[in-house]
TrEMBL record:
The keyword Protein biosynthesis applies. Its main location: cytoplasm. The lineage of its organism: Bacteria, Pseudomonadati, Spirochaetota, Spirochaetia, Spirochaetales. This is Proline--tRNA ligase. Its EC number is 6.1.1.15. It catalyses: tRNA(Pro) + L-proline + ATP = L-prolyl-tRNA(Pro) + AMP + diphosphate. One of its GO terms (biological process) is prolyl-tRNA aminoacylation. PANTHER family: MITOCHONDRIAL RIBOSOME PROTEIN L39/PROLYL-TRNA LIGASE FAMILY MEMBER (PTHR42753), PROLINE--TRNA LIGASE (PTHR42753:SF2). Residues 37-462 form the Aminoacyl-transfer RNA synthetases class-II family profile domain. It is an enzyme of class 6 (ligase).
């Protein structure tokens, strides 16, 4: 490919503040173009990277017996009604009507479509297990897109689905996909934090996610450096400590209800650990008040596990007014009728707390549950903090920010049962298949690959993913040099070579070659005219060397072998 004809040239200066340098390099290197907020165009080189990534992933899926399919982006709303997910509040569906008046959905995920496909294929236990995967566009109407491809409205996902005749078979297959994901990330040269995670709106019984450690990541993984325990903060379990102290006498003090938690703590001259943090959520069962200590946050995944249903939407002002819940003074000690209260176990075990009276004007200080107020229902519903202790070994946990790249779910019969998809087992009984779902966000993964494989000059693509293997350029106007460049293109293959044929300075060409990150630069210049030698430079190591042109084939074979990752 001639650089002069390539759509998407390098950009000297990138406008805006990109918090992930790898994403900025994708923009500057001519791999992607921003069409609108959360809407990204893959330019030709970006598309080549995408195609190679798909091939790498497909190889692993085929090893597990996977068959590729392609479900429509647009789904009928009826299948979402069947699964019970048509009314999702956390990520509302984007719907529209066709010319016949049928309601359709821009699918944010394809579990429902996969169940319908399996229904048409699986008639008995002999048709199981079934493992299918696809690369398909998804659309989620994100309110807050961020970090370019990391959280976009429209994105490409590899989503796979497995169906099994028994839970034991699903349980045996699940780690095989886990290990395939580990191999994929290793081939991409991306460090990962595999961690237990919540099932969220997906449902099911178990989930793991694969995260890229990064300070800009919104996910937080709790890691035990001693025993290796890893879990997303939303589901991580550990020991939350409360310092023992003598119980003080209960009293009331006047307070300003407009104060936030930090200001209230400063006014009362107490640490946040002495305050409570009530959070009220909407649910189909009525409002739910979740209460954690002031220095912790509510875990919606843990709360859902306790309640038996998901909550995510903060209560509206109308709800608070209806149930006489007064912001700034809400308290589990005085719960209004019709409000379900769950208190984190640490709140119950912390002495001498500050509590609101749910009326206004005053707060109780030195309040103790079991002495001053009845013990409310309690459970572990708080996200852990750094420094909390590991349940397994007792060492302090560390908190690591990370970006989620993929996840795997044991869905059990969550979808098949709701959607009434069954098969006949060997005994002639109707059974609901056990199901797994396995996702990889390709845009997120490409961003993380770029972030993990770069230096101060630009991108450094792994050999398997680079848009081109060789960056070839001639220095000088000699017809012999241009002829040698043409010969190299033919010898190496046009699909593997990007030829810099621009009329630019040598410095500009060298800088662009480094920015684009193609693995091997080959220069035909003065030494070729004098000694028939080519200049080679490895982008990753920076090593430069010269070889006679007739030895190129043997040299490239050795070079490629050195760049194949050991799995």
């Amino acid at each position: 490919m001639k650089y002069s004809r390539l759509i998407g040239k390098t950009i000297r200066q990138q406008s805006g503040n990109q918090t992930i340098e790898g994403y900025s390099l994708l923009l500057r290197g001519g791999y992607i173009h921003v069409l609108g907020q959360g809407l990204i165009t893959y330019l030709p080189m970006g598309q080549k990277v995408m195609d190679k990534l798909k091939h790498l992933i497909s190889t692993e899926m085929h090893e597990l017996g996977g068959e590729e399919f392609l479900a429509p982006l647009v789904n009928p709303i009826s299948i979402w009604h069947k699964s019970g997910r048509s009314g999702m509040k956390e990520n509302p569906l984007v719907t529209f009507k066709d010319v016949q008046g049928h309601t359709l959905v821009l699918a944010p995920t394809h579990e429902e479509a996969a169940v319908e496909l399996a229904r048409s294929t699986v008639l008995s236990y002999r048709d199981l297990p079934l493992f299918i995967y696809q690369f398909q566009t998804k659309f989620r109407d994100e309110q807050r897109t961020r970090l370019g491809l990391v959280r976009a409205k429209e994105f490409i996902m590899k989503d796979a689905y497995s169906f099994h005749s028994s839970y034991a078979d699903l349980n045996n297959f699940f780690p095989k996909v886990f290990n395939a994901y580990v191999r994929i990330f290793k081939k991409c040269n991306v460090p990962i934090l595999p961690a237990e995670s919540g099932v969220g709106i997906m449902g099911g019984s178990k989930a793991y996610e694969f995260l890229f450690p990064h300070e800009q990541g919104r996910d937080v993984v709790m890691v035990c450096p001693s025993c290796g325990y890893k879990a997303n903060r939303s589901v991580a379990v550990g020991v939350k400590l409360s310092k023992p102290e003598a119980l003080r006498g209960l009293s009331q003090v006047e307070t300003d209800g407009n104060l936030d938690l930090v200001s209230l703590a400063e006014t009362l001259n107490v640490p946040l650990s002495k305050l409570i943090k009530p959070r009220v959520y909407e649910s189909e069962e009525g409002p739910v008040m979740a209460v954690v200590r002031g220095d912790y946050d509510v875990s919606l995944d843990k709360l859902a596990a306790v309640l038996g249903f998901s909550v995510s939407t903060p209560a509206k002002k109308e709800t608070l007014k209806k149930y006489k819940l007064l912001p700034g003074y809400m308290s589990p000690a005085f719960p209004p009728e019709g409000v379900r209260v769950i208190v984190d176990e640490l709140v119950v075990n912390t002495p001498n707390l500050v509590l609101g009276n749910n009326k206004g004007g005053t707060h109780y200080i030195n309040a103790n549950f079991g002495r001053d107020f009845e013990l409310p229902p309690s459970a572990d519903i708080a996200q852990l903090n750094q420094g909390d202790l590991c349940f397994d070994c007792g060492k302090e946990l560390e908190a690591h920010n990370a970006i989620e790249m993929g996840n795997i779910f044991k869905l059990d019969d969550y979808y098949t049962k709701r959607m009434r998809f069954s098969f006949e087992n060997a005994k002639g009984q109707k059974v609901f298949p056990q199901m797994g779902a396995y996702g990889l966000g390709l845009g997120r993964l490409i961003t993380c690959i770029a972030e993990a494989n770069r230096d101060e000059q630009g991108l450094v693509w792994p050999l398997e993913l680079a848009p081109y293997t060789y960056f070839v350029m001639g220095i000088g106007r000699s017809s012999r040099i241009s002829g040698a460049v043409d010969e190299l293109v033919q010898e190496l293959g046009e699909d593997s070579v990007l030829v810099d044929d621009r009329i630019e300075s040598i410095g500009v060409k060298f800088r662009d070659a480094a920015l684009i990150g193609i693995p091997l630069r080959i220069v035909v210049g003065r030494r070729y005219l004098e000694n028939d030698e080519l200049e080679l430079k490895d982008r990753k190591t920076g090593v430069k060397w010269f070889i006679p042109k007739e030895r190129l084939k043997q040299e490239l074979k050795i070079w490629r072998e050195q760049h194949v990752p050991s799995i």
